[in-house]
Design brief:
The chain is built from 22 helices and no strands. By secondary structure, it is mainly α. The chain folds into three domains: 201 residues, Up-down Bundle (Growth Hormone, Chain: A); 59 residues; 251 residues, MFS general substrate transporter like domains (Growth Hormone, Chain: A, Up-down Bundle), CATH 1.20.1250.20. It is globular and about 80 Å long.
């Protein structure tokens, strides 16, 4: 037996395994941001409106959120290596399908597949790294994993901008194909297969009802504006499906023994966990919503080149990474409540700065609020993760992390849909309000240059005036969105008082820092 163990240990190629699984992880996290800067280009190519093109982001996030809790069950049923290989292959194929899509429906369907297949990357990569490293090296392994997880969001805007500028938006997805193939080979070649234990059972009814509720809610939010909300039969159908499926899920969860339920309701009895889950919902909403707004504002409204947009939005991710490194060292030395309060205050300040944007913006005006936002998010993530799971028993952390990630992703998708809806609605409202003040009693008409440029007796002058009003109205709508997120960041601050300071930092805190 010892000879066999020694032989197996000798063949373990930790560096190659680490590289292979981290490539897969970076792919998954990269795709959460790489498409953002390419959205305006996709919008024109696929003949989509501004709120419709946001489905490219929300489809990926929702699919990933729903599929993530299935990872443990699938590994138990088919084996860790098999699930990893199948996930990488499916994600790579779905990326190719995104790149060749010719319509909005096709790319949304392909993004759904991307989200489903990529959902297992982050939890599986973490588990594999823990498995292949001895206990004394697991801290270093998790540091590598954490850095790898953060590389994707940081690299995404810059790489996406460069690929779109130099080639085409389709290369934002095609770039995944060769990387995915390398990751697939490395996983197939170096990771040892593990037997399927087939001990776990899945609450299929609970999973199905939750998926239906979340999917119907997202469809309602994504398509509501297009369908004129509740004047449409489709909206009512989606609302009914969401309500019925959600009710069945809640009732089923309450009546099913906790250990057999898809969602262990005992988690909500833990004050820290329940509060932390509400916090992460708001964090997901603010983080992804703002990152979806900034690129479209810069490119569509301010005519920034796509490559420049990628470069000036990437420092936000760098700020997050730096703040996470600092926050990790402060845990246990500084009050969790104080760190969270500072983090949300910094986040609110950054959004307040964004709410004062104008049509005359310099590069530094974009970079510094983004850096502050990244610092605020980083200061929130680490202490929030620590306090949320500090009082959970070890047996409940596995499902707790899955639900925590699910709620964060749901918050992200709802946030993106909400700000896009408000952007379209408030643009119309602001346009109407500004138009009311356009009359010949306005002193500006006495300026010969203004009167000549916006001569309402000629079609060109009327069109120029309408374009100027629309530009101003759109900027006002963006500012309204930033104000809303700023208020949300401040509104959750009183919840900090509900958190119990942890007595110790659990060894597996890294499990929730994604």
């Amino acid at each position: 037996m010892r000879r066999t163990e020694t032989f197996m240990t000798a063949r373990l190629n930790r560096p190659m395994i680490t590289i292979s699984i981290m490539l897969a992880t970076i792919l998954q996290t990269l795709d959460s941001t790489i498409a953002n800067v390419a959205l305006p280009h996709m919008q024109g190519s696929l003949s989509a409106s501004q709120d419709q093109i946001a489905w490219v982001l929300t489809a990926y996030i929702v699919a990933s959120a729903i599929a993530t809790p299935l990872t443990g069950f699938l590994c138990d049923r088919f084996g860790q290596k098999t699930v990893f290989l199948f996930s990488v292959a499916g994600f790579t194929l779905a990326s190719a399908l995104c790149g060749v899509s010719e319509s909005l429906g096709q790319i949304v369907a392909a993004r759904l597949l991307q989200g489903v297949f990529g959902a297992a990357f982050v939890p599986l990569s973490q588990v594999v790294l823990m498995d292949i490293n001895p206990r004394e090296k697991q801290g270093s392994a998790m540091a590598i994993w954490g850095m790898g997880v953060m590389v994707g969001p940081i690299l995404g805007p810059t790489l996406g901008g460069w690929l779109t500028d130099q080639y085409d938006w389709r290369w934002v997805f095609f770039i995944n194909v060769p990387v995915g193939m390398i990751a697939f080979y490395g996983i197939w070649r170096y990771i040892r297969p593990t037997p399927a234990e087939r001990r776990m059972q899945i609450d299929l009814f609970g999973f199905t009802t939750l998926s239906l509720a979340v999917g119907a809610l997202q469809m309602l939010l994504d398509r509501g504006q297009q369908n004129d909300w509740f004047s449409s039969t489709e909206t009512w159908v989606e609302l009914i499906v969401c309500g019925v499926a959600g009710t069945y899920f809640v009732a089923h969860t309450a009546l099913t023994p906790a250990e057999k339920s898809f969602f262990d309701y005992r988690l909500l009895k833990n004050r820290n966990y329940a509060t932390g889950t509400l916090f992460i919902f708001v964090v997901g909403l603010v983080m992804y919503a703002s990152r979806a707004l900034i690129p479209t504002m810069l490119e569509s409204l301010l005519d920034y080149p796509v490559a420049t947009t990628g470069l000036i939005t990437s420092p936000s991710g760098i700020g997050t990474m730096l703040a996470m490194l600092v926050a990790g060292r402060l845990i246990g030395k500084v009050s969790i409540r104080l760190m969270l309060t500072i983090g949300f205050m910094v986040l609110a300040i950054s959004l307040w700065q964004m709410s004062h944007y104008s049509l005359d913006l310099g590069v530094s005006d974009i970079i510094w609020p983004g850096v502050w936002q990244g610092l605020g998010l980083g200061l929130v993530f680490v202490p929030l993760s620590t306090s949320t799971f500090a009082t959970l028993s070890a047996s409940m952390r596995s499902q707790g992390t899955a639900i925590f990630s699910l709620v964060r992703n749901i918050g992200s998708s709802i946030g993106i849909s909400l700000v896009q809806f408000l952007l379209v609605r408030n643009t119309v409202v602001a346009h109407a309000s500004l138009t009311e003040s356009i009359n010949y009693a306005n002193p500006a008409w006495h300026d010969p240059a203004v009167a000549a440029a916006f001569n309402l007796h000629h079609p060109a002058g009327a069109a120029a005036l309408d374009a100027a009003i629309t530009q101003q109205a759109t900027m006002i709508a963006y500012l309204d969105d930033f104000w809303l997120m700023c208020i949300l960041s401040l509104a959750v601050l009183p919840l900090v008082l509900l958190l119990k300071p942890p007595q110790h930092v659990p060894a597996d805190t890294h499990a929730v820092i994604e």
